[in-house]
Amino acid sequence: MNKFRSRLIAFVILVGFPLGFFFYYKQKIDALPNRQKEVQVFWDAPDFTYETQNGDTLHSKDLKGHAYVADFIFTNCEGVCPNLSKTMSLIQLNFKNDDRLKLVSFSVDPDRDSIPVLKDYAKRYDAIDGKWYFLRGEKQNVWDMAQKGFKVPVVYTPEGGKGAEFTHTEKIVLVDEDGKIRGFYNGLDKQMMDTFYNNLASILVGIQQ
Questions:
Q1: Residues 53, 118: Cα–Cα separation, whole Å
Q2: What is the pTM of this model?
Q3: CA gap 38, 199 in Å, rounded
Q4: Which helix (H) or strand (E) holds 165?
Q5: Do 134 and 53 form a contact (C-beta atoms < 8 A)?
């Protein structure tokens, strides 16, 4: 009896569990092409041309053919920015070797966020060159792009004190390979980030590697 039970347990461990995981993930993967149609399509993401943390230039057209995730930060921020950057860093880690996805962080405080400052900030979060861009441009231009193009708020609030001079969105923006905005997600909310990852996976299915 004990010998039979031992063999049964061994069978479950060696065959049952692997089969269970296989069918679990197969079901998820099979569903991806269908889920692509379910991700909402918003409007065209705005065009932009800004300096990167390395001193070169990135144009929005350079991102065509790739999905990208955008957020808005300033390096002196003592509020949501560090946690948003951690969220972006985790996204980068999960898709480190997937060239279909890029990351873009716009500085809303370009007067203080010089190229060297952005480069130091990028190093703090292990940003990979060519994968995660930290961008700066003329201040009013960046603010207009955020508010009129991405339609997310950026407000100068000096009364907030050191580290809180700007009020800006905590949402990250998902843009597809055609430059269409596909979603806004609170980058500090686990449930919203689960939705983000599902939608991102659906979009990546449609991009040729």
A1: 5
A2: 0.79
A3: 8
A4: none
A5: yes
